[in-house]
């Protein structure tokens, strides 16, 4: 079993469950197919599983490491954005909503996506490679956002919290009586969800 599945905190874990999306952070594994670093590049992307009949053998030497996500909401929480090549329309939609929802950066559609990646990298991990979280009012968060509740990752969807597991969502609960929660999903993505971008969420 390979260590190639990503949880909402951005950690790369071992599980037999494969996931619905593919991800890329550069070459993360060694010749023994072991993860030796959490990322290599700032462009963390989410790809489709199949594209133009291309076939890849997972974790080949000196090739980028194939990562997998339960759903798009998980990928966003981990800090990944849509790929420009295999998800061109999704990427354009992402960029449009991200720019509209984060006007403080002064970017426009001509801004290279690498500039957005620089912002995202600051939002996803610290200099010590620790997941960045922040506090927000629970009632102000949009669907698709991941929060920490009782030290576990929960997806906010339709006024409920849904416990994330590698196999899918379990233990749906009503929103707890909390004012503030720790948010896992990077802040500019949460702003984007508030602005109208609805990520794909598993059942």
Fold and architecture overview:
The protein has 203 residues and is of the alpha+beta class. It has a domain at 134-186. The protein has four helices and twelve strands, in the order E-E-E-E-E-H-E-H-H-E-E-E-E-E-E-H. It has helices at residues 72-78, 88-101, 113-124, 187-194; strands at 3-6, 12-14, 21-24, 45-47, 67-69, 81-82, 134-137, 146-149, 152-157, 160-165, 168-174, 180-183. The strands form three sheets. The protein has a six-stranded antiparallel β-sheet. Strands 5-3-4-6 form a four-stranded mixed β-sheet. A hairpin with a 2-residue loop joins strand 9 and strand 10 (160-165).
Radius of gyration: 16 Å
Distance between the termini: 25 Å
Low-pLDDT residue spans:
none
Shape, per Cα inertia axes: globular
Average pLDDT level? 95
Spatial strand arrangement across the major sheet: 7-12-8-9-10-11
Q: Mind describing the biggest β-sheet?
A: 6 strands, antiparallel
**Total DSSP helices:** 4
Order of helices and strands: EEEEEHEHHEEEEEEH
List the topology elements.
Blueprint lengths: L2 E4 L5 E3 L6 E4 L20 E3 L19 E3 L2 H7 L2 E2 L5 H14 L11 H12 L9 E4 L8 E4 L2 E6 L2 E6 L2 E7 L5 E4 L3 H8 L9
Parallel strand pairs: 4-6
Antiparallel strand pairs: 1-2, 3-4, 3-5, 7-12, 8-9, 8-12, 9-10, 10-11
Helix pairs in contact: 2-4
Task: Provide tags for this entry.
single chain; 203 residues; alpha+beta; six-stranded antiparallel sheet; 4 helices
